[in-house]
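Let us practice reading a record.
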Amino acid sequence: MAKDSRIEWTHHTFNPWWGCVKVSPACTHCYAESWAHRLGSELWGKSAPRRFFAKDYWHQPFKWNNEAQRTGERRRVFCASMADVFEGRAELNEWREKLWPLIEQTDWLDWLLLTKRPQNVERMVPWGNTWPANVWLGTTAENQKYADSRIPKLLAAPARIRFISAEPLLGSLSIQKWTGIDWVIAGGESGHQARPTDPVWVRSLRDECRESGVAFHFKQWGHWAPKLPPGISARQKLQLGSDDKGQSTLYAIGKNAAGRMLDGRTWDQIPG
């Protein structure tokens, strides 16, 4: 959990538990698994345990809510950065039952529920066709295959805000055929084993969002950058794309040096 999160598109993070199971290519270099491992916790996989938290931890969102109400400024809470709220595991049911009323009682917080399992949402939430207005539901779509599979299930849920996390973006992705998407977050993968993100994919997705009035947030280039900043040398260089459709040159310089500028500016749009 973190107040004043370093994740650019949220204010706070809250985890009802830690641990998960990998389900698609976006999970391959899972930062949450790596972080838990560095702290000495083996929490990933079907047979691995999950880590749960005490009462004091669960009281923190009430403090954030009171602060937001006092200042008159709503705050976004990413739930869960170290897990998936909709993982199909029986022992998690009692913790989900604690989460739903917490969300309802903190109505100055907008809860961002991001999942790779949107097919489980309908049977796990208690709200039927009337969801709390402070729930934003999102799904990860790292390429077109997973967008086609997951977005229809996302759009079937009557959340007030529905969003896509295309991070890491691992292939070209179009959302033109869907209506009802409010926000797209895109970004490249970080770490020495990171897979590259082609700038062509990012620009195409951004342009679709602009044309359809969807808020667009570009989080980062990640390990691979489309150009070298002054004074920075690349550890590696590669070419993406084909000769007939154009090629992109990418440089391995690390997340911090690569930054998050896209065509001369940052993209920090938020729905509403």
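A brief commentary: The chain has one domain: 12-225.
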